[in-house]
Amino acid sequence: MSKAYLTIDDGPTTLTRAMIDYLQSKNIMPVLFFYGHQLEKHFDEGLYALKQGAIIGNHSYSHPNFNNISYEECIEEIEKQDALLERLYQAAGMQRTYKLFRFPYGAKGGKHKALIQQYLREQGYNRVDDSEIDIKWYIDNELNKDIDSYWTFDFTEYQLNHSSDFTYDSILQRIHDPNPETGAPLLEKDSNHIILIHDHESTDKILPDYYKILIDYVIEAGVEFIGPRITPQTK
Fold it and tell me: What is the 3-state secondary structure (H, E, C) of 168-205?
């Protein structure tokens, strides 16, 4: 059996409430990485997720590839979304205990990576506790040293929207793949993971209730979802 945190990118959307209700029924507490364009459109859905106990992280304001924009634009993206998240917590009447950040597409800023990491530290961002993750790929890429929140397994279910060659069976193959090209094998015995799934209405149109189907599947296959632990910020 493997243990995993669940993280969800790209919300909130019209699906968010249903996703949260489903996860509550499974006693799964997720980390949701919201980005600003979506939060402005679906503020009430974001508020619902927060009030139901989800941890909300920063996923930038407009979801650009940070490798392709200037350092100043990277910081503007983070700060603009950070202000929105502060407004979300205030609207909920809740204290923002943790500050988490995930780069869109996992693109860490290219030549600006070190500066952005330093900025996140200086701004008091936290890390998802990955001390139990001993996956070679994860450690070799020094993901255990960065402040931002990465992942070890991505369902990549969003690809259902982009290619007719990518199907539900493709996702199942990825789940069972002992040697994936990226990430780490999900079902390896006694492994620890940070799982990524996406909050996409377009995916739900192709595979209705995809998040229920996939999460139920991996639970049946032996994945135990645990509540995420957050490490104190160290400068």
Answer: HHHHHHHHHCCCCCCCCCCCCCCCEEEEEEECCHHHHH
Query: Which residue in 65, 62, 72, 66 sits closest to 41, CA to CA?
Result: 62
* CA–CA distances in Å: residue 148 to residues 41, 71, 92, 113, 189: 25, 16, 25, 11, 26
Residue 205 burial class via C-beta count within 10 angstroms: exposed 0-12, middle 13-18, buried 19 and up? exposed
User: Residue 156 in contact with residue 171, Cβ under 8 Å?
Assistant: yes
Helix (H/G/I), strand (E/B), else coil: 140: helix
Pairing of strands 230-231, 127-128: antiparallel
Q: How many secondary structure helices (H) and strands (E) does the chain include?
A: 9, 8
Model confidence, pTM: 0.96
pLDDT tens digits, 146-194 = 999 999 999 999 999 998 899 999 999 999 999 887 778 999 999 999 9
Let me know: does 60 contact 81? Beta carbons within 8 Å.
yes
Q: Whole-angstrom Cα distance, residue 26 to residue 198? A: 18
Residue with tokens 């950040």: 101
Residue 62's CB is within 10 A of a number of other CB atoms, namely 15
